[in-house]
Protein: VOC family protein
Organism: Lysobacter yangpyeongensis
Amino acid sequence: MLDHMGITVADFAASKAFYERALAPLGYGPVMEVTPEMSGSDARYLGFGANGKPDFWIGAGAGMPVTHDGLHIAFSARSRVAVDAFHQAALAAGARDNGAPGLRPHYHPNYYGAFVIDPNGHNIEAVCHLPESDS
């Protein structure tokens, strides 16, 4: 349903460093950067993704307020091990724990997720929907 999404961040450099570290265990990395020269303003953007397609964007610039009331983003993980690695990497990169890796059977029996609060206050999750034997 969704092609891509973006969030505004308060500190572009810090958020870039955070997401590079936190998303690497999930197989996502920087794919495309839009500089102020390219945007024609002071705004800059960085798209993260896999296989050359940016799916998740961060952006900063004048007139781009950081809002995070109720914002929650869940990234798909290929395995439970990747969820664990995301959580460890995000905490090491400066996130706050918002739910250790584990099963969340109230969603469904194989829902394995981990939650962190990023440097901008956003609730970020990695989730694997596969049974343990398949992940």
About this structure: The chain has a mean pLDDT of 91. The longest strand covers residues 53-60.
